[in-house]
Amino acid sequence: MALPTPTSSWTQGFDFPNRLFETSGNDYELYEEDDEFVLSIELPGFDPEEITASWDDGVLNVAAEREDDQRGTYRTYHRRFRFPKTVDEEAIEASYQNGILSVRLPVVVDAAMTGTEIEIES
User: Fold this and answer.
1) Which of 29, 32, 51, 73 could potentially form a cystine with 64 if both were Cys, beta carbons 3.0 to 4.6 Å apart?
2) Is 67 exposed, middle or buried, given 0-12, 13-18 or 19+ CB atoms closer than 10 A?
């Protein structure tokens, strides 16, 4: 049986494998209430002009880009959200306050769901 390799002093106390491969899954909240989806995304440090949101065939695309000339850095954000119900794309609303992008996506009530039922064999 091999003994575990001791961590070097500069990595002690850090959970590197989890932090290196983290998927930033905690930067948004999505829920459904009162016949609409409500999506909140944390985008601190961006200006509203640097954020774009677009709707395309059941998918919401959110992107943000920011260049900081003073620090010589460039930040980008991109995420796609697919929705399981028909959304009234003409009624989608978005606002940005205090670093939070909020998107409200009204569901078309009584819309026929598209797709094919899959038979489950036993």
Assistant:
1) 51
2) exposed
Q: Using alpha carbons, select from 111, 89, 114, 93 the residue that is nearest to residue 103.
A: 93
Would you say 106 and 92 are in contact if contact means Cβ atoms under 8 Å apart? yes
Q: 116: which 2 tokens?
A: 């094919």
Architecture per CATH, domain 24-106, reads as: Sandwich (2.60)
Nearest to 87 by CA among 72, 103, 107: 107
Domain map (residue ranges) of the chain: 24-106
Question: 37, exposed or middle or buried, with CB in 10 Å at 0-12, 13-18, 19+?
Answer: buried
DSSP 84: S
What would you measure as the largest C-alpha separation in the chain, in angstroms?
Answer: 64
Classify residue 23 by its DSSP letter.
-
Quick one: pLDDT at residue 74? 87
Q: CA geometry: angle at 40 spanning 99 and 108, to 5°?
A: 145
Q: How is residue 11 written in tokens?
A: 């990595």
